[in-house]
Specification:
Number of helices: 7
Number of strands: 17
CATH class of the largest domain: Alpha Beta
Order of helices and strands: EEEEEEEEEEHHEHEEHEHEEHHE
Number of domains: 2
Strand order of the largest sheet: 2-1-17-16-14-3-12-13-15
Structural class: alpha/beta
CATH architecture of the largest domain: 3-Layer(aba) Sandwich
Largest sheet: 9 strands, mixed
Strand content: 25-35%
Oligomer: single chain
Length: 352
């Protein structure tokens, strides 16, 4: 398949550049691949789409203030976006500068944090930072929330709270698992009262999630690797839900990728790992029955993933409907609940 197969026209005014006043006030498009249909709902009515005994799995990663601005020793401006933390004082980062700094170069961020370029690794730079404080502490004091570029605005005070899920607890992501932004404490309580169980995985979303697909043949694209953790308690919750006939729903593509990565062998493995799993149409899902997700960018790997989950043609029609009905798109936009399409012959796709 080609990247252009996953293109669609989106009016600029449908990009949600700010969140709604309430997290659960968004619309919800319910897509049922088995019935080849979709219908309009409200996110506030989500519990009615679940049965007692169903299981919801959330990604509990916490977004760090991963963007810093500074200058090179020569005085040239430089902007840094953390891709991943490598330890208390080291990170892999993207750097934007008029001329890329060489290994050994010194940088200074926010007129407070000294850093050294240790190496270049393809389009990333490995930096070591002032060891007098952990890098997370420096970022928390001087960094900015790394909003996606398509929002076309700088971070504002409210983004510190709203570009973070209410259950976030493990710092390390540089982009929010945005499907989870729709959940507030009241919604979580209503789901529990309805008999829906919850469990957690961790996948630290990297800055590579913002990178476009630059090739036309989708199988030539390579994903950036991300760290994930599947706790034993989550694997046990999935097994228990299956035994009682419950459905397993991933909140977000990151939760789905963590679980599908851990089940590549055919059995769900617990513990931590690295994944560059690229899910495209033809992939055979092993763990997840349903997916709550936002509307994704044209020509993006995430649109390819949801097309694999719900069926390419059905998702095309659903997206055309969402545009026509003026749904709000992307990170701060509306949501979808996708019921998985039935498997055809098994075929793995993407990198392991």
């Amino acid at each position: 398949m080609k990247t252009s197969d996953f293109d669609y026209a989106l009016p600029d005014e449908l990009i949600a550049r700010h969140p709604l006043p309430e997290r659960d006030a968004s619309r919800l498009l319910h897509v049922d691949a088995a019935a080849d249909s979709f219908h309009d709902c409200e996110f506030i009515d989500l519990p009615a789409l679940f049965r007692p005994g169903d299981l919801l799995i959330f990604n509990d990663t916490r977004v760090i203030k991963a963007r810093l601005r500074g200058e090179k020793a020569s005085g040239g401006k430089v902007e840094m976006l953390v891709e991943r933390l490598l330890g208390e004082h080291e990170a892999l980062v993207f750097l934007r500068a008029s001329k890329s700094p060489r290994p050994g170069s010194r940088l200074r961020f926010a007129d407070a944090i000294d850093a050294r370029v240790e190496a270049r690794e393809q389009d990333l730079f490995r930096l070591s930072f002032d060891p007098t404080r952990p890098l997370l502490a420096w970022l928390d004091q001087y960094g900015e929330v790394p909003l996606p570029p398509y929002l076309a605005r700088g971070a504002e005070a409210d983004d510190d709270r709203r570009y973070q899920t209410v259950y976030a607890r493990d710092p390390g992501a540089v982009a929010a698992p945005t499907a989870g932004l729709h959940f507030n404490d009241a919604m979580l309580a209503r789901l529990r009262e309805h008999g829906v169980e919850t469990a957690f995985v961790t996948l630290h979303v990297g800055a590579g999630t913002f990178l476009p697909v630059r090739v036309e043949d989708i199988h030539d694209h390579r994903m950036h690797s991300e760290r994930y953790l599947v706790p034993e308690a989550t694997a046990e919750a999935i097994e228990t839900a299956r035994a009682r006939g419950g459905r397993v729903t991933a909140v977000g593509t990151t939760s789905l990728r963590a679980l599908e990565s851990a089940a590549r062998s055919g059995t769900l493995a617990t513990g931590s790992g690295e994944t560059d799993l690229f899910i495209t149409p033809g992939y055979r899902f092993r763990v997840i029955d349903r997916l709550i997700t936002n509307f994704h960018l044209p020509r993006s790997t995430l649109l390819m993933l949801v097309s694999a989950f719900g069926g390419t043609e059905l998702l095309r029609r659903a997206y055309r409907h969402a545009v026509a009905e003026r749904y709000r798109f992307f990170s701060y936009g509306d949501a979808m609940l996708i019921e998985r399409r039935q498997h055809g012959p098994e075929k793995n796709a993407g990198a392991s």
